């Protein structure tokens, strides 16, 4: 077997050894930061799980907001029935009447229907919430202003929420929860204006007349969750995300290239784990109301990163393996994804390409060329009739060319990472973003019928982009993380994708071997310096949002074994093995990279 295949097998074997595909029992994490920097700023008090449902009642919840300076926050709120909120003893929100909770799941955020203005003073602020129920549901949600999933730089100290520093509250309680609660109280009249003791005084160690007898301050019901094993700053090897679905897809390809069924078994475990786990994930998200619980993005998230892209190994298995035990489960999932591909994902008006609402409505990302277009190609190959097959092929071809009208920089002959609707600002030429684009084009060229009217235009653009990338390759075989910034670091995932696509272009006759084969081999020799004998891979850029500020990309952290880079390296090794062994000497590793 060729050396490149042996090297990527070491990576794949490490994945097999170290990926558990299991949940670990753990307490729900308590987020003490009242900011939406990572879109997990929601606070939930589930009165129903603590005090029960089935009858009219009301209860109170109490916490503290600690602000580094005086400031105003326009927080989002959601609740059933009536709700009243006091900040530092002053009423700041009040709504009566019957209502149901309505949470809108967006790309990387959960939107609420209510708003409360919190004028915080510097230091400690108290927040008291009065919540009623008619007996059907009973929860209170509050979160900082939604950033629609955008990751932004934090300005100064954050506002904190919780019980740490509260008078006469043990610090260990603050590690378990941000809230104290008391109830249930009588509410047969459904009158939010009727006061109870917690509105008049806040005293520990005292009993008050409740609905079923005396009550006192306590904490909400604590939840035990199923968490991900081995979480890293960049994520994990097996949670629900496009890069882990991509890794399973790569393992399927490696099984074909090597004849080793253990790699296909890994991909099957990934798919089975997620499909069989959907009821549990939905329970944690919608019953326990833990919005950042494990694998929650698999439930109703309208984003290609968590729909079509991680579904590639599922549809690939359906196409290539006609009979297996869980096939019906796979078919149901892929039926949903096929509908999502055609009807569900937001598209840019007038262009028909996949777009996003993050960070603004109609943000077109080069990432989405890969997140959506390869699935469209797989959908065409999976289609049961010629009409459906042709529709998916046409959609894929159209999207390649229409993406070029939005994010292709003709002057640089490179892709900008993204473009905001209404803005002509050219975002940086991020390496992996360019990789997603050329990889998507290569998938279209692999399978689009030769007679398709748009194939020639796609091929010409692939060749133009490939030539531009080849010109920007460093002498040692790497590419910079921001392609036209020679002061930036040299990076593995982009280098792997470019190596893959140049080799694929030569292997399939799209690129001149005399001009591009050596560039592909030099890229692989560079990657070899970052692969340890045990399968460790160094210097992979962390996942990122988009930005018009190049410094955002220049300062991204790099990690070992981040699957954002592992699955491109696996595919690159397979294509290089097909290209043939290099006769050139091993390239020296640059000083800015860790050498194998």
Instruction: Name the poorly predicted regions.
Output: 149-155, 581-596
- Straight-line N-to-C gap: 21 Å
Q: How many H/I helices? A: 16
Q: Name the overall outline.
A: elongated
Give the beta-strand count: 24
Label the CATH architecture of the largest domain.
Alpha/alpha barrel
How large is the radius of gyration?
A: 27 Å
Number of domains: 2
What do the pLDDT scores average to?
93
Q: What's the CATH class of the largest domain, please?
A: Mainly Alpha
| CATH level-3 fold name of the largest domain | Glycosyltransferase
In percent, how much strand structure appears in the residues?
Answer: 15-25%
Specify the biggest β-sheet. Answer: 6 strands, antiparallel
Which structural class is indicated by helix and strand composition? alpha+beta
| Helicity range | 25-40%
Brief rundown of the structure:
The protein has helices at 3-18, 47-51, 171-176, 197-200, 242-258, 261-287, 312-320, 327-344, 367-382, 386-407, 431-447, 455-471, 492-507, 513-528, 550-554, 563-579, and strands at 23-27, 43-46, 57-67, 71-79, 83-87, 90-95, 104-105, 110-111, 114-120, 123-133, 139-143, 160-162, 180-185, 208-210, 213-215, 224-228, 363-365, 408-409, 414-415, 418-420, 479-480, 490-491, 540-541, 558-559.
């Amino acid at each position: 077997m060729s050396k490149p295949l042996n090297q990527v097998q070491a990576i794949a074997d490490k994945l097999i050894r170290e990926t558990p595909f299991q949940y670990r029992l753990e307490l729900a994490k308590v987020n003490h930061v009242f900011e939406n920097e990572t879109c997990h700023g929601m606070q939930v008090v589930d009165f129903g799980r603590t005090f029960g449902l089935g009858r009219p009642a009301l209860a109170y919840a109490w916490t503290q907001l600690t602000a580094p300076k005086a400031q105003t926050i326009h927080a989002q709120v959601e609740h059933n029935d009536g709700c009243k909120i006091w900040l530092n003893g002053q009423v700041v929100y009040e709504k009566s009447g019957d209502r149901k909770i309505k949470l809108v799941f967006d790309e990387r955020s959960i939107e609420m229907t209510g708003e409360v203005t919190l004028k915080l003073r510097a230091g400690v602020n108290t927040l008291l919430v009065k919540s009623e129920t008619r007996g059907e549901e009973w929860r209170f949600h509050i979160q900082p202003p939604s950033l629609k999933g955008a990751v932004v730089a934090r300005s100064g100290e954050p506002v904190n929420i919780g019980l740490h520093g509260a008078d006469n509250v043990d610090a260990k309680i603050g590690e378990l929860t941000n809230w104290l609660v008391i109830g249930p109280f009588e509410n047969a009249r459904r009158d939010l204006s009727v006061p109870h003791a917690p509105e008049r005084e806040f005293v520990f160690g005292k009993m008050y007349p409740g609905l079923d007898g005396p009550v006192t301050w306590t904490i909400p019901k604590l939840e035990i969750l199923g968490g991900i094993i081995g979480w890293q700053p960049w994520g994990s090897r097996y949670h629900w995300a496009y890069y882990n679905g991509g890794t399973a897809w790569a393992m399927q390809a490696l099984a074909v290239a090597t004849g080793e069924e253990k790699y296909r078994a890994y991909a099957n475990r990934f798919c089975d784990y997620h499909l069989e786990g959907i009821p549990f994930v939905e329970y944690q998200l919608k019953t326990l109301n833990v919005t950042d619980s494990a694998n929650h993005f698999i439930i109703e998230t309208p984003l290609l990163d968590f729909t079509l892209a991680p579904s590639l190994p599922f549809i690939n298995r359906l196409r290539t393996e006609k009979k297996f035990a869980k096939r019906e489960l796979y078919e149901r999932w892929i039926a949903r994804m096929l509908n999502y591909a055609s009807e569900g994902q937001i598209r840019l008006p007038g262009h028909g390409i996949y777009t996003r609402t993050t960070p603004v409505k109609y943000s077109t990302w080069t990432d989405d060329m890969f997140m959506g277009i390869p699935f469209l190609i797989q959908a065409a190959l999976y289609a049961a009739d010629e009409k459906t097959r042709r529709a998916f092929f046409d959609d894929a071809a159209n999207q390649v060319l229409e993406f070029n009208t939005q994010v292709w920089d003709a002057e640089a002959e490179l892709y900008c990472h993204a473009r905001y609707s209404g803005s002509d600002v050219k975002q940086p030429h991020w390496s992996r973003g360019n990789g997603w684009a050329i990889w998507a084009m290569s998938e279209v060229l692999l399978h689009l019928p030769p007679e398709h009217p748009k194939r020639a235009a796609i091929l010409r653009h692939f060749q133009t982009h490939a030539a531009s990338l080849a010109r920007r390759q460093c002498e040692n075989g790497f590419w910079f993380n921001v392609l036209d910034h020679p002061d930036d670091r040299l990076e593995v995932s982009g280098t792997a994708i470019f190596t893959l696509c140049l080799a694929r272009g030569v292997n399939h006759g799209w690129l001149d071997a005399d001009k591009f084969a050596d560039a592909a081999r030099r890229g692989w020799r560079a990657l070899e310096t970052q692969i340890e004998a045990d399968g460790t891979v160094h210097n992979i850029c962390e996942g990122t949002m988009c930005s018009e500020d190049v410094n955002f990309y220049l300062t991204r952290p790099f990690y070992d074994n981040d699957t954002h880079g592992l699955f491109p390296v696996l595919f690159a090794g397979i294509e290089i093995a097909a290209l043939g062994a290099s006769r050139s000497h091993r390239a020296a590793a640059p000083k800015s990279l860790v050498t194998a």
